[in-house]
Amino acid sequence: MAQEKAARAQQLAQEKAAREQRLVEEKAAWEQKLARREAEWDRSQREWEKQYQALTAVVDRTSRGIDGLNGRWGKFVENFVEPAVVRLFQARGIPVTETAQRVKQTRGEFAMEIDILAENGDVAVAVEVKSHLTQDAVDEFLGNLVNFKRAFPKYQAYQIY
């Protein structure tokens, strides 16, 4: 019986040692797997960062291109509208005879740009040209127009439309 107990204890010790060895091996395998996944994550993160930077550069170039097109589009629309301004306002009884585009003035705190300014000596019409008109744009223009005579004192005595 003592021999059986000793054999059983030895068997249990061997099984325990085998389990512990398996656990050590499994732990090592998991640590290797984790290290591989961390390395893959780091590589993936670096690749994503490169792609993000490349995309950001493309977006920046595209935005600059669109801004350039918007500026040219705005000038195109202004050039398209300007020839009709005198005729249209005269047809409505506003006696303007000349126009100027992109009239700018900075006077103290008042800085203003008028897309098209039509006048005749005592009447001036400030025209804001928009390829896409919104109520907000109209409200903003009307708000800015309040300061027109301060920004352009030359027109103090003019009737402004």
Describe the structure.
InterPro entries: Restrct_endonuc-II-like (IPR011335). Keywords: Coiled coil. This is DUF3782 domain-containing protein. This protein has a 4-stranded mixed sheet. The radius of gyration is 39 Å and the shape is rod-shaped. It is built from 3 helices and 4 strands. 65% of the residues lie in helices and 17% in strands. The chain starts with a helix and ends with a strand. The mean pLDDT is 86. By secondary structure, it is an alpha+beta fold. The chain has a domain at 84-160.
Strand order of the largest sheet: 1-2-3-4
- Average pLDDT confidence is 86
Strand content: 15-25%
**Main sheet record:** 4 strands, mixed
Poorly predicted tracts of residues: none
Order of helices and strands: HEEEHHE
Shape: rod-shaped
Give the structural class: alpha+beta
Number of helices: 3
From the N-terminal CA to the C-terminal CA, the straight-line distance is 118 Å
Output the radius of gyration: 39 Å
User: Tally of extended strands?
Assistant: 4
Q: Could you list some keywords that capture this structure?
A:
single chain, 161 residues, alpha+beta, four-stranded mixed beta sheet, DUF3782 domain-containing protein, coiled coil, Restrct_endonuc-II-like
Brief overview, please?
This protein has 161 residues and is α+β, with helices and mostly antiparallel strands. The protein has helices at residues 2-91, 135-145, 148-151, and strands at residues 98-107, 110-119, 123-127, 159-160.
